[in-house]
């Protein structure tokens, strides 16, 4: 029988995907996580453990056999991000997924209804992969997923509470001016490290335009007032979310005293 594999990323959407997959297919589902804990917020490990308790299935932690973390990728490949995407994503997530997958796997990622274009692009670029888009089929948005976690009594990851719309690695090379100015304030050591790396590689993540001319903007010359990043996550729980809540029979998570103190 084909494996049912959910790719968990420590984000709200992938957490709800895992819950829905286990509800649909049972505890034989494989919940896999590409472990980037050294470059993600430390609170992600707490969130991962809470989700394990919620879904009742252990989350398998996978690591690259070549690279330690995102900084190791940047150092060894001398590449950050470009038209081909972020090198860290291809090496630490895609390559790890390809190495782990088996023929016939039904694979599930946490793309929501507002990311249908990303799901379509994934299918187009990976025609050999059999996918199931549970959140899209249920019409769930990212805000719905955050609401479902709230209803289940699961504390959302710290990065969401700090106002980040995605729980990516701290200092994501796919971010632009507003994001990096927020990183400058929240994680100045990461900002400075990336600024130095940009100069070392002579590559700038950010850009601005003068007419049609694209001009590189290095982090060490980025205007602190440029860009705008949402201060708080937009957590809502609308009618679609309530419908999914009832269908999933989502239970409150009773955390142990140690978990409560840790949270």
Describe this structure in words.
By secondary structure, this protein is an alpha/beta fold. The chain is 45% helix and 13% strand. The protein contains twelve helices and nine strands. A five-stranded parallel sheet has the order 3-2-1-6-7, with helices on both faces. A two-stranded antiparallel ribbon has the order 4-5. Helix 2 (43-55) links the parallel strand 2 and strand 3. The model is unreliable at 231-240 and 256-263 (pLDDT under 50).
Summary?
With 263 residues, the protein is an alpha/beta fold.
Main traits of this protein?
263 residues; alpha/beta; Rossmann fold; 2 domains; 12 helices; 13% strand
Alpha-carbon Rg, integer:
19 Å
CATH architecture of the largest domain: 3-Layer(aba) Sandwich
**Gross geometry:** globular
Reported by name, the CATH topology of the largest domain is Rossmann fold
* Terminal-residue CA separation: 39 Å
Domains (count): 2
Share of residues in strands? 5-15%
Largest sheet: 5 strands, parallel
- Helix segment count? 12
User: pLDDT average, as an integer?
Assistant: 87
Flag low-confidence runs: 231-240, 256-263
Task: Write the topology of this structure.
Elements: E1 4-8, H1 12-25, E2 30-34, H2 43-55, E3 59-62, H3 70-77, E4 81-82, E5 85-86, H4 87-100, E6 106-108, H5 116-125, E7 130-131, H6 134-138, H7 142-151, H8 158-161, H9 177-186, H10 188-201, E8 206-210, E9 213-217, H11 239-248, H12 257-262
Parallel strand pairs: 1-2, 1-6, 2-3, 6-7
Antiparallel strand pairs: 4-5, 8-9
Helix pairs in contact: 1-7, 3-4, 7-11, 9-10
């Amino acid at each position: 029988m084909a494996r049912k594999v959910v790719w968990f990323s420590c984000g709200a959407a992938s957490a709800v995907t895992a819950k829905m997959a286990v509800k649909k297919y049972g505890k034989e589902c494989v919940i896999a996580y590409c472990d980037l804990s050294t470059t993600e917020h430390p609170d992600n490990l707490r969130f991962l453990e809470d989700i394990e308790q919620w879904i009742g299935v252990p989350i398998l932690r996978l690591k690259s056999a070549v690279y330690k973390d995102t900084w190791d990728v940047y150092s060894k490949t001398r590449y950050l991000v470009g038209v081909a995407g972020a090198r860290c994503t291809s090496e630490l997530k895609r390559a790890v997924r390809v190495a782990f997958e088996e023929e016939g796997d039904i694979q599930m990622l946490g793309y929501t209804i507002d990311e249908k274009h990303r799901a379509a692009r994934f299918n187009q670029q990976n025609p050999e992969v059999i996918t199931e888009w549970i959140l899209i089929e249920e019409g769930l948005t990212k805000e719905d997923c955050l609401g479902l976690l709230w209803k289940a009594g699961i504390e959302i990851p710290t990065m969401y509470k700090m106002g980040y719309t995605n729980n990516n690695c701290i200092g994501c090379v796919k971010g632009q001016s507003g994001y990096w100015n927020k990183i400058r304030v929240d994680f100045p050591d990461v900002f400075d490290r990336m600024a130095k790396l940009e100069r070392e590689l002579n590559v700038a993540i950010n850009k601005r335009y003068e007419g049609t001319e694209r001009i590189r903007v290095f982090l060490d010359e980025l205007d602190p007032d440029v860009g705008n990043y949402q201060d708080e996550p937009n957590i809502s729980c609308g009618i679609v979310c309530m419908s999914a809540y009832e269908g999933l029979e989502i239970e409150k998570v009773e955390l142990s005293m140690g978990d409560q103190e840790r949270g």
